[in-house]
């Protein structure tokens, strides 16, 4: 679900802002998009209501990252005992005008899959960002 719609509490809004800051610190040229999903019924049916979705856009096509835009989906789960929402996985996908070019899932051995994938240094930057997002979303209060 769009991050802008998920930011229903100060705590969650702060974590979303921290996530944007993490990615922009690693990749300063990115422009954040807190509403990456279109507001139409077809798209709404595909959206995971338990995820926090953030789009990032490069100023043009990034040859190093093999994409123009990134979609970050932070998969969330609410712990029934503590009533806290925790990040259980991240999905990162790179898109250009042809559609999705690659994806990274922290649930699936942190491997990149796709016809084209980012350069090694860029892959490590994205993995580092994912590790930091887990820290932000799962730290104790």
Question: How would you summarize what this structure contains?
Answer:
Helices cover 31% and strands 35% of the residues.
String of helices and strands: HHEHEEEEEH
Over all CA atoms, what is the radius of gyration? Answer: 15 Å
List low-confidence stretches. Answer: none
Counted beta strands: 6
Helix percent reads 25-40%
**Portion in beta strands:** 25-35%
Strand order of the largest sheet: 1-2-3-4-5-6
Number of helices: 4
Q: Cα distance, first to last residue?
A: 24 Å
Total count of domains: 1
Structural class: alpha+beta
What is the 3D form?
A: globular
The residue-averaged pLDDT reads 87
Summarize the main sheet. 6 strands, antiparallel
Describe this structure in words.
The protein is α+β, with helices and mostly antiparallel strands and 141 residues long. It has one domain. It is 31% helix and 35% strand. It has four helices and six strands. A six-stranded antiparallel β-sheet has the order 1-2-3-4-5-6, covered by helices on one side. Helix 2 runs antiparallel to helix 4. The longest helix is centred in the last third of the chain and has 19 residues. It is globular, with a radius of gyration of 15 Å. It starts with a helix and ends with a helix.
